Amino acid sequence: MDKITFACTLCGKTLNAPLNKAGKIEQCPNCNESLRIPIPANIQHCPHCGANQIKKASLVYEQGTSAGNLTGISLDDQGSLDVFGAGIKTKSLLATRLAPPSRPTITALVVSATFGIVFFIADIVLLAELSKTPHHQKGSTLFMIVMFGLVLAAMGIYFYIRAKRYPKEMAEYEYRFKTWDRLWVCLQCGKTWTSQ
Ligand SMILES: [Zn+2]
Ligand SMILES: [Zn+2]
To answer: pTM for this one?
Structure first.
């Protein structure tokens, strides 16, 4: 392959460009739109400096991330030996820069749902207690029912908003991940680009 074939983002016309124009901005001969010529996945040279030391960012990230064990020995005041260990993950500076996008978590949903359930149960218990409460204390029990109810409602609203936004966050994450998966890095100049 010695040509890049792509479509104009404005008029849709199929265009060709030589390989050495990958990543450069040119005008569409049909509609004059300024276009960045896509960089094919199989180019051999960095489109910025021309060096041939190019690598997929995902590969650099994996190779630059290493898991290991940290082991330590300590002596306590009774003189007995204690060996402790911890799993560690280290990343090279380049791997840190080329890290994949972080995946949205459901922690906020779980936390708000848990709090919601706790306050719901508390409200039910208080409602059951209300009939047994002596008349002169009914006011404070009712006050607590309202307060617990308000927290429950707030948790419910928060849960609803987060749950509604979650599919969109996931779709955005998947899009960013796919873009990251097409990211290349030049080991000579350090510049990155996204291939087709
Ligand atoms: Zn065009
Ligand atoms: Zn380069």
So the answer is: 0.69
Q: How many domains does the chain have?
A: 3
60 is a domain residue: no
**136 shares a domain with 76:** no
Residue 31 Cα to ligand 1 midpoint, Å, equals: 4
Residue 33: the pLDDT is 93
Q: Are strands 183-186 and 54-56 parallel, antiparallel or unpaired?
A: antiparallel
Going from the Cα of 26 to the center of ligand 2, the distance in angstroms, rounded, reads 20
| Co-location of 86 and 130 in the same domain | no
The bound ligand whose nearest atom lies closest to the alpha carbon of 8 is 1
Whether 102 is in a domain gets the answer no
Q: For the residues 10-35, what does the mean pLDDT come to?
A: 92
Query: What is the distance in A from the centroid of ligand 1 to the CA of 183?
Result: 26
Residues 75 and 140 in one domain: no
User: Domain range for residue 161?
Assistant: 107-181
Residue 133's Cβ-count burial label (10 Å; 0-12, 13-18, 19+) is middle
The CA-atom distances, in angstroms, between 145 and each of 138, 154, 191 are 11, 14, 60
- Tell me the three state secondary structure of residue 100: coil
Quick check: 3 pLDDT over 70?
A: yes
Q: What's the CA-to-centroid distance between 42 and ligand 1, angstroms? A: 25
* Residue 87, pLDDT score: 76
Torsion sign (Cα): 60, 62, 63, 67: positive
